[in-house]
Amino acid sequence: MRVLIVKNYDEMSKEAGKIVKNRLEQKPDLVLGLATGSTPLGLYKELIRMHKEDSVSFAKVRTFNLDEYLGLKPDNEQSYHYFMFENLFKHIDIPRENIYIPDGQTKDPEKFCQWYEDEIEKAGGLDLQVVGIGGDGHVGFNEPGSSLASRTRVKTLDEGTIKDNSRFFAKPEDVPHFAITMGVGTILESKEILFVANGAGKSAIVARAIEGPVTSQVTASILQIHPKAVAILDEAAAADLQRKDYYKYAEEQARRFEKSL
């Protein structure tokens, strides 16, 4: 895994944006996997800026979101449908029919999850998947103990996740206890993975994900075995990495080498 450590959240977002822009230039019909949460918001703002100021087009892009709460309508302000349209989709030129987000209102979750897997396959697979990390090390809604070979499915949310999410809801009983999520195996099949994390609150779990053992108890640790994964971290999130100095050194050397070509 390539580990890029930058000064702060803004730099993290800009570096992530550069990678997405580069991949779009290489492949205008990029199949892009997207995540929700506060961490990728800066990236999405950067993509909007690039679209408006640099004429970056998403007209041929197809997107697949990692997850969605089961039971929430798309217009619910806490749904990931709402999040994605408010924070990205309605500000860029992506066609509505190219946007795929798990259906939290499906009457047949098992059938829907298989359909979602089939649509990813029909699209040629995910070219670039954006992921963050939960406080317990989950990626998507693949809670600790999830199979590292899992596919898109309904997942019961961990009590800690439910507690973390309760701040977004008016009443504790409104917090969903289930979600549809891409599986760890589905994520791992992406051709490239862009892992973003920021803040001191994530430093301990980031260190476990990047430098600890690969384990189902920290599902993000599976990214270690991906052949083309890059982690972009701010200084605070990277604080507990044992090999932090090496990652910085390796990045400096890589950039020098690229300039010499």
Sheet-strand content, in percent, reads: 15-25%
- CATH class bucket: Alpha Beta
Helix-strand sequence: EHEHEEHEHEEHEHEHEH
Helical fraction:
25-40%
Mean of pLDDT? 96
CATH topology, by name, is Rossmann fold
Please give the largest β-sheet: 7 strands, parallel
CATH architecture type: 3-Layer(aba) Sandwich
SSE-based structural type: alpha/beta
Topology readout:
Layout: E1 2-6, H1 9-26, E2 31-34, H2 41-54, E3 62-65, E4 67-69, H3 80-87, E5 99-100, H4 109-122, E6 128-131, E7 153-156, H5 159-165, E8 178-181, H6 184-188, E9 193-197, H7 203-211, E10 229-234, H8 244-260
Parallel strand pairs: 1-10, 2-3, 2-6, 3-5, 6-9, 9-10
Antiparallel strand pairs: 4-8, 7-8
Helix pairs in contact: 1-2
Characterize the structure shown.
By secondary structure, this protein is an alpha/beta fold. The chain has a single domain (2-260), classed as Rossmann fold. It contains eight helices and ten strands. The strands form two sheets. The chain has a seven-stranded parallel β-sheet with strand order 1-10-9-6-2-3-5. It has a three-stranded antiparallel β-sheet with strand order 4-8-7.
